[in-house]
Amino acid sequence: MLTGRYQARFGYEYNPKYNPDDHRQGVPLSEMMLPALLKNAGYITGWIGKWHLGAAPEFYPQNRGFMETFGFIGGGHHYINWEPGGAEYNLPILRNGKSVAVKEHLTIAFGSEAASFIKRHADKPWFLYLAFNAPHLPNEPTEERLERFKGIKDKQRRAYAAQISLMDDAIGKALQSLKDSGQSQRTVIALFQR
Q1: Which helix (H) or strand (E) segment is 126 a member of?
Q2: What is the H or E stretch that residue 143 is in?
Q3: Which helix (H) or strand (E) holds 49?
Q4: What is the DSSP letter of 15?
Q5: What is the DSSP code string of 149-179?
Q6: pLDDT, tens only, 74-108
Q7: Which domains are present in the chain?
Q8: CB neighbours of residue 144 within 10 Å
Q9: Mean pLDDT of the 158-163 span
């Protein structure tokens, strides 16, 4: 159980640039983040998706209270057909700090990973931070999704709608795992949009 007085705040007026050598741009290490607080209270903590809170290693999610991690460091990433390299949008996808291959569309991969996390921890208290990068540029939906929205003539709007539908399905997969594992009535879901 959490006791005491805590203050929630957001300290960024702008997005930090991806620079793993910059040890100033990130949520200050003096700040205790929610996952660290919950981890100390006995929760399993997980991060999936985008991490735009500092690119130097000390700011990584596994160093800020997350016990299980899956995603990329930085502000954006390609969704399909990328070769992991050193530049933002092509960075490796990391699972618990180690590079892993992702063959499916990144949005779907994040939804599948969230569903797996939820099912694995059905019998314990947990906290999951799921941060999709969709519909962030570059919009790279699957061909099947583009076909589904072929009635939208503007190519950019069609790609955007297709990306949103992929994210809807990924969120639906995570929510279905809550229901299937009997956790939907005892789980708080907070949605944030920027």
Answers
A1: strand 126-131
A2: helix 143-148
A3: strand 44-51
A4: P
A5: TTT--SHHHHHHHHHHHHHHHHHHHHHHHHH
A6: 989 999 988 888 788 999 999 999 999 999 999 99
A7: 47-186 (3.40.720.10)
A8: 10
A9: 96
Q: Residue 44: beta bridge partners?
A: 126
What is the value of pTM for the model shown?
0.91
Query: What is the edge-to-edge ordering of all strands in the sheet holding 126-131?
Result: 98-100, 93-95, 68-73, 44-51, 126-131
CA dihedral 82, 17, 161, 128 (to 10 degrees): 90
Q: What is the DSSP string of 52-106?
A: -SB-SGGGSGGGTT-SEEEEEESS-B-SSS----SSTBSPPEEETTEEE---S-H
| CA–CA distance, 127 with 67 (Å, rounded to integer) | 10
Helix axes 106-120, 155-180, angle to 10 degrees: 10
